Amino acid sequence: MSKKLSRFATRRTVLQTSAALLAGSALASSSARADHYDSKIHYEPELDEDNLQELSVRGYDVLEDGVKVDLGEYEGYVRLFAEDMARVSVLERGADEYESRGIAKGRTEWDAPEFTVDATDERIALETATITAEINNGRFGVRFRDADGTVINEDYLEKGSPGYEDGKPYAYKKTDEDEAFYGFGEQPGNELDKRGEKLEHWNTDQYAYGADNDYVYTSIPFFVGVKDVGAYGIFFDDPYHSVFEMATESDDYYSFFADGGQLTYYFAYGPEIEGVLERYTELTGTMELPPKWGLGLHQSKWEYTPEEIVETAETYREKGIPLDAMHFDIDYMNEYRVFTWDDEYREALDRVESVPGIRTVAVNDPGVAAVESYDPTADDSLDDSSGDESSYGDESDGDTTDDGADGDKSDGDDSASDTPYAESPDTGTQEDGVSLTTDIPDDHTRYDVYIEGTENDYWVKNADGETFVGRVWPDETVWPDFARSTVRSWWAEQHDALFDAGIDGIKNDMAEPAVFQENEKYDWTMPVDNVHGTGDETMRHAEYHNMYGFDMARAAREAYDVYKPDQRPFLLNRNLYAGGQRYAALWTGDNVSSWAHLRKSIPMQLNLGLSGLPFVGHDIGGFVGRPSPELFARWMELGAFVPYCRNHADSHTKVADGEPRNQHPWTFGEDVEAISKKYLRLRYRLLPYLYNEFREASETGKPVQQPLVFHFQDDDRTRDIDDQFMFGDDLLIAPVLEAGATAREVYLPDGEQWVDYWSGESYDGGQTLTVDAPLDHLPIFVRTDSIVPMREVQQYTGEQPLTTLVLDAYVDDEATYSFYEDDGESRAYEDGEYNVTDFTVSATPGGVVTFERESVVRNYEDSQLSSYVLQLNRSDAPRKVQAASTKYEAVDDAATVEAEPETFTYSEAKDAVLVHVPADEDETVKLFFNGKNSRRGNPENESA
Fold first, then answer.
1. Is 61 a catalytic residue?
2. What is the mean pLDDT of the chain?
3. β-strand 359-364 against 325-328: which pairing, if any?
4. Residue 842, Cα to own-chain centre: how many angstroms?
5. Most buried of 162, 536, 582, 660 (most Cβ within 10 A)?
């Protein structure tokens, strides 16, 4: 007879010994208050400023990579990882220096730079070619200077030395009045510059979050400071609940501390922001290059019926709106048992995969139903028809305010109901323990995930060593202990249930970890004294909490190595820690269908990009509620220009009467459908440009969606602009973010010439324009002396091979571009199977424009790229075009040029010069004009 699992039969586990050891450790005694499962609110750690430490330097030793400082009961370390990066640690004497899971390249993997040590009565100075780290030879404190001796960053010692307060590590830092602060991971506030804000890190399921929420789903305790001396970064590598007070109490200082752990932080000097991020992501890792289909549009909804999923994919194709992926939310599971399928959704998956070019993504949760079997015939799907979207007209737009203005509960944002899930009572503390005891009914299917996990003792434990049992989607749930590599590998193996069915990508949800219990702060998670890991790696949940989703992503990433070793992973997480970019893309959780959340998405994503996560996005149209037609149109315009592009919506069972069932481009009428189609097609035309931006992000950590200050750091006016951004290096996007607006102001950064993408008009930088922006118009500007690679529109990313690359060139003097190409699917690029081609377009005062290409790398043999169409931003026709002795033929229309190599024309419709150059052209192509350059327009209808 098969064994059956008794859900709550008590038994002791092998972890009791580890739990007992942990209870007596320094970790347990540090901040010893343990909030248990029946407590309502996770307490916020605080510092007692009357109890800060006074650590003094008593001596020092020179190490091969820095110095070790005698601080009495403590030891201080300043280690140099590079000539522009150092690590500062204060720890109890004899303790090991800490490196979290977020570190990809640990101390032993760095080559220490050349440095000198000079000691006086006042300070101990470690000098490299770029920075000097000075340690006060008295009250302990650290100061960093640049090569000219200017102070970049220093401790604020009027509060005492950096150290510990009742086990909580802290540091106070001086700040200049004009210093700006960016990053801090995922923060729900409305401002880009976080100066004057209190910022916390404690991963939390925050349904319909607002600007007044202290923390949301992802924690990255890293920031970039920008001041006159340049940019620097500080990564406080502490996964405990951390708090950053960024000049909230005084313009003289800021501080950071955590609820436990070790005082360890990394300091990196730019002086450019890009240099800081390159160092930070060298330390914590860069993202993998995603599959191209991951960059197309994704469509999703909670509680699609099986038929709706199929119909939605088919309708995208029928209407010619590009789409790459459909998502299967938790409804596909059998009674919310992870790694199972409801038969109707399994059939829908087969039908969706028959739609040309559609990839599929399945949601996965860490909560495992504490049941030994399930009824395979159970039908827990909605007893609901697909409804008629066409009846939606001018009803309520789904915002939680009456007038659509910015309106948080307290500060201009929107929040929805107090609970994200319709029937989620306060469950209190569950009975402990699980065991295998009884038989499985003949009409049930054995649930091997739970059985194997219990037999192998893979679940998270309570403080007393018993299995922790709570509630998430299943009424009785246990959680894998992802802190253990054995458990991660076992979890990876379970993914065959998804991959064998045909799923292409994985969306990891609810890994904050979310545990259902109602309270006013939605602090639904495990007790902080739960136990993870074994042996020397045992830790309390207070330490591991922010890393739980990170390790779930690691496990899902391992699944690709097991089952899809030749394919690039597509992983999407709602919850990560620093370094999580190595494993997954990120979306910003349960946002709201409101104008406030449309606007909020920009600074949230820009700061995530400045925290090392280039592959980020949000739910287009808003998740909670439903948008008005106007709001959805504006949101789709913006959404076409974010790194991860997904339309996702909450269940139709949670919206008001009269609001639409679903949230598709055609839901809101023909005009909104046309706007959605226009901008999605433009995104797909720009995929060569976007893919190259992702390639650079995977190598250097540079954001794909960038705040203006990233490129224009010396222009003070860019420091707090949070309603515009750069999409890649050369496209400036200025979306409309207010209801009823038909115009908006756009700031063009100083030091550049800018071209209106639609009209072709040229503008000097350093000025603010008022730009007309009717509902179907998104203001876009292109930086002069740039090349934007484009291609023909596709219905999905792999529909047609790239044979002709369009080079949209905006040239006053000289523009260069390094174009990267690979197969977009496999991991062969990791072995060097890719091509790199450098393009240069130059203009002389005498009216000659030259086009040159250089093949830099040629290892991708399956490339079908056979030619280039140079689309030159000029309003006059060349007299002739030739490459050495080969004269190109002048023709009358753009279509002929696009079809036939070695031809050219001036297109009045495009208001551009088009030249079709064979890909194997080794000679310089010269365009001879009669006079100086003049601008062209780019009519809006050409975008489609």
1. no
2. 90
3. parallel
4. 36
5. 162
Q: Indicate the range of 115-129, 421-435, 536-550 predicted with least confidence.
A: 421-435
> Exactly one of 509, 551, 630, 722 is catalytic; which is it?
509
Q: How many CB atoms lie within 10 A of CB 209?
A: 30
Clarify whether 512 is annotated catalytic.
Answer: yes
Whether residue 423 lies in the annotated active site: no
The pair of three-digit structure tokens given for residue 606, joined into one six-digit string: 């820009």
CA–CA gap between residue 762 and residue 725 (Å, rounded): 19
Burial class (CB in 10 A: 0-12, 13-18, 19+), 656: exposed
298-299 vs 445-446, strand pairing mode: unpaired
Task: Provide the pLDDT confidence category of residue 158 given band limits of 50, 70 and 90.
Answer: very high
- Which one, of 429, 492, 486, 431, lies nearest residue 459 by Cα? 486
Give burial (CB, 10 Å; 0-12/13-18/19+) of 741: middle
DSSP 8-state code for residue 171: E
Is 371 within 8 Å of 434 (Cβ atoms)? no
Q: Write down the number of H helices and E strands in the chain.
A: 16, 54
Element (DSSP H or E) covering residue 81: strand 74-82
* Helices 485-493, 548-563: inter-axial angle, 10-degree rounding: 50
Instruction: Say if residue 428's pLDDT is above 80.
Output: no
Task: Name the 3-class secondary structure at 256.
Answer: strand
The pair of three-digit structure tokens given for residue 115, joined into one six-digit string? 């440095």
Two tokens at 33? 């208050």
Beta bridge mates, 5: 436
Catalytic residue among 127, 342, 372, 590: 590
Is the per-residue pLDDT at 877 higher than 70?
A: yes
> Mean of the pLDDT values across residues 200-215?
92
Other C-beta atoms within 10 Å of 812: how many?
15
**Residue that is written with structure tokens 């292409």 in the block:** 504
pTM comes to 0.92
Query: Cβ neighbours of residue 900 under 8 Å, at least 6 residues apart?
Result: 889, 891, 916
In the numeric block, which tokens belong to residue 417? 């109901």
Report the alpha-carbon distance of residue 153 to residue 272 in Å, rounded.
15
Closest of 318, 327, 320, 319 to residue 299, by C-alpha: 327
Active-site annotation holder among 512, 523, 659, 696? 512
CA 731, CA 754: separation in Å to the nearest integer? 10
